[in-house]
Amino acid sequence: MPYDSFEWQQEPPPSNGVPRSAWTRSHKRVSTWHRPYTLVLIILDLISTVFASWLAVSLIEKSNSGFQNSEKIFYLVAFVGVPLGWLIILWGNGTYDRRYLGLGSEEFKRVVRAFVTLVAVVSLLAFGTKTELSRVTIAYVSITALVFILFGRYSARQVLHVARKKTGHGAHRMVLVGTLPEALEVYTAVTRSPAAGLIPVAIHITDGYAAARGIETPVPVYASRDVLGLVREVGADTIAVCGSASSEPGELRRLAWQLEGTGVDLVVAPQLTDIAGPRVHIRPIEGLPLLHVEEPTLSGPGWLTKNLIDRVVAFFGLVALSPVLAVIAIGIRLSDPGPVFFRQPRVGHEGRTFRVWKFRTMYVDAEERKASLEELNDSDGMLFKMKDDPRIFKFGNKLRGTSLDELPQLINVLKGEMSLVGPRPLPADDGDYLGDVRRRLLVRPGITGLWQVSGRSDLSWDESVRLDLYYVDNWSLTYDLGILWRTIWVVLKRKGAY
């Protein structure tokens, strides 16, 4: 429900900046969702490590364990020592830190770091005590436990995401502080992903109440209020300082002082939208935290590896899927006489034009009939999209729903014209791609990409361009693997496919 109102109040005197001890916190933390969630993670980690030890005991001979002379010690180490060691090292590596739970890859990186630490500790203990341990047993237990822990945490995270999307539980209620445009920009960014668990409930503007008069906003807008009092009034647990408000001399520091011991979190949202974490580094100089933004990585070993993976996967994919491709080709010929493939000029890397390979899903006169359907176009961009398009034959509709019509694009990937992951390939006859849109030509278009896993045809043109540019600016091999994984579930759900 949009709001067209604001509240105004005299600014209270500034905080005296006297810090309060974290051990004598005057208020309990408002957000407590992480406590039961952390307990669940501890239980899952414990079960994972015990199960890994049980598998090792069952499948590997105890005579290779190094404890062949004492069966009690063997079981004590396997079912008590190893699980407790895992929990201690996981805790020491910050895998239960609430800041990394529920979103991002940092939690999983810390689990892997704990795995490396555990192997190193066991090796040093074995060397220091001159205990002969089976390398096979150690490797089996450690790797198996790592896989189970990662799977358990991933499953718990999916449950948390569902809870956040459907019920709002496990989320942080935020008050955005800054100018109205900056606060609304942050509001749009954090609400794009309900799984992130960030729910803005109010905006406190710093540029005066007149800036919000007559403007509809998604949440109530306040001006000249005591921020901490406002947080308690709206039941929030987080303050997000947006844009230029974070650069006011001394203000951010005094706000941090004021929040000490209150149980309210403070986050800063600088004016760096759509730039991923790996490109941003904090470099403190004489107490001044400078945010250094690295250039996008569009060359080097990682880019070469991406190209190599594309060609290898495309080659073996075409070989493995050849029977499926043959069956689809027969189905198309039986549905409508004409060519099996549809080839259209598209714009690729650095503006080079190529012909994309796709299975034909429309009747042969589809292009001639397009002019009469222009007014029914559901897309606001360069691509013509229409739900229940009458030009699509029945079998073609099934191919589109399952994305099987795009499998021949593996030929384009093998030829180096496309990639497995990248921006969507756009038609070559729909404009010169000037301005921001042209930047997406810095990389090869992909069979899948952020646009596909984020809504596909349901997205607006501006949103599709934003996602494509985000991919170009923040590409990485890990990011590609994540998109490929998400593509599987999107295709199975048939979300936005028409």
From TrEMBL:
It is found in: Membrane. Keywords: Membrane, Transferase, Transmembrane, Transmembrane helix. It comes from Winogradskya consettensis. This is Exopolysaccharide biosynthesis polyprenyl glycosylphosphotransferase. InterPro entries: Bact_transf, EPS_sugar_tfrase. NCBIfam families: EPS_sugtrans (TIGR03025). Residues 306-493 form the Bacterial sugar transferase domain. GO terms for cellular component: membrane. Residues 1-22 are annotated as: Disordered. The chain crosses the membrane at residues 37-60, 72-91, 111-129, 135-156, 312-334. The lineage of its organism: Bacteria, Bacillati, Actinomycetota, Actinomycetes, Micromonosporales.
